[in-house]
Specification:
alpha/beta, 4-stranded mixed sheet, about 35% helix, binds pyridoxal-5'-phosphate
């Protein structure tokens, strides 16, 4: 039996309707932007393996850092113990994060980085004697992850609806006016405002202006609540700056990081907080402790790869590559404007196909059949993409060369111009 057949007998895949989904791609190795399959195909990873990969697959320097760390220390628990990779990574992150973020709390992935921020916000106010500040203000179309808190903060959608008995209520707003109205009326009950700065990812690749992010910071200051920036997707260069908050020149009270943190090698989450938040947990009263942790907190292998990735940002023109890619994406998507609403930021280009096209005259949103049909058509051409319903997007590793990107853009254009049904 080949790998896909064996898989289909025993494995249950994420976000996959196992009855109708095509057999999974059997990937045997990967290098740069290319994935190689058991049956001899070479496929361009056009979504950076769910947005995590930044320097390319199987990067020699990251491989070496991982192997060296494995020889030294693979893991040790992080309550009562520490190690060089975790300390050094925290030091380096604090150096490059927006000024004012002073403490790094490690967890395992993007969802846990968000859960930690939500829990820290609630307990921060509780520790300060304001336990009524416990609601969260979030944005429509948000996506913050799949654990219960992260789901609650996300848009009420097909992703979360089956779990409505588990999630807690939040206040979802559309924009600044909406947010201000709520904060004016109910600000004393708000623990934090949570946003994906500049780019809402899974909610449909929606780009927001820097003024919006700056406006949210202003409102949080005015109504004295916390601002949490979920930079799980946008962190580490994806929008053309190291962190998306830099577009607006703001510092959030907490920032959530994962995905590009380890350049797509290993799961690791970070929630970084200001000294003011950290200080609110310092007490002789042990009940004010932050009681949260995961077995693999601050895994040394993951931290070592994250450090090697930061070395690449320091030593090579990584951010310049993202800006070069951004120019190429703009030029490549421009001729497709007639087909949909185009959005480009940093290394991300998206086209929300117009609903009057027969292509999308189907269910709206994520369940739109254009998604799987287009994915299959892209794959036939050797390009791995996973449209979000009728939102087609291209988000390759930053190391993609000009000729690889131009080949991928040609495949996207050709596919979108071919009638699908
Ligand atoms: C903005 C944002 N937050 C959180 C998450 C959840 O991250 P993870 O899938 O690692 O749990 C994602 C994942 O796509 C994301 O895009």
């Amino acid at each position: 039996m080949n790998l896909s057949d064996r898989d289909q007998a025993v494995v249950w895949h994420p976000y996959t309707q196992m009855l109708t989904a095509p057999a999974p791609l059997p990937i045997t190795r990967a290098e740069g932007v290319w994935l190689y399959t058991e049956d001899g195909r070479r496929i361009l990873d056009g979504i950076s393996s769910w947005w995590v990969n930044i320097h390319g697959h199987s990067h020699p320097k990251l491989n070496a850092a991982l192997a060296a760390q494995a020889r030294e220390l693979e893991h040790v628990m992080f309550a009562g113990c520490t190690h060089r990779p975790a300390v050094e990574l925290a030091e380096r992150l604090i150096e490059i994060l927006p000024k004012g973020l002073a403490r790094v709390f490690y967890s395992d992935n993007g969802s846990t980085a968000v859960e930690v921020a939500l829990k820290l916000a609630v307990q921060y106010w509780r520790n300060l004697g304001q336990p009524n500040r416990k609601t969260f203000v979030t944005l429509h179309n948000a996506y913050h992850g799949d654990t219960v808190g992260a789901m609650s903060a996300s848009e009420d959608s097909v992703f979360t609806r089956a779990f409505s008995t588990l999630t807690f209520p939040v206040e979802r707003v559309h924009g600044l006016d909406d947010m201000e109205r709520y904060l004016r009326d109910a600000g004393d009950f708000v623990a934090a405002v949570l946003i994906e700065p500049m780019l809402q990812g899974a909610g449909g690749m929606i780009v927001r202006p820097a003024e919006f992010v700056a406006g949210v910071r202003r409102l949080c200051d005015q109504y004295r609540t916390l601002l949490i920036a979920d930079e799980v997707l946008t962190g580490f260069g994806r929008t053309g700056k190291m962190f998306a908050c830099e577009h607006a020149g703001i510092t959030p009270d907490m920032i959530c990081l994962s995905k590009g943190l380890t350049a797509g090698y290993l799961p690791l989450g970070v929630t970084a907080a200001t000294a003011a938040i950290y200080d609110a947990f310092l007490s002789d009263d042990r009940s004010k402790t932050f009681f949260h942790g995961h077995s693999y907190t601050a895994n040394p292998l993951a931290c070592a790869v994250a450090l090697a990735s930061l070395d690449l940002f320091r030593d090579e023109a990584v951010l310049a590559n993202v800006l070069r890619l951004e120019r190429q994406l703009r030029a490549g998507f421009e001729p497709l404007r007639a087909l949909g609403d185009m959005r480009v930021i940093g290394g991300v280009a998206a086209l929300e196909l117009f609903s009057d096209r027969s292509l999308t005259s189907d269910k709206p949103g994520y369940l739109n059949q254009a998604g799987p049909r287009l994915a299959a058509a892209f794959l036939e051409r050797g390009l791995l993409l996973r449209p979000l319903g009728n939102v087609v997007y291209f988000m390759p590793p930053y190391c993609i060369t000009e000729s690889e990107a131009s080949w991928a853009l040609e495949q996207i254009a050709a596919t979108l111009r071919t009638p699908l049904w």
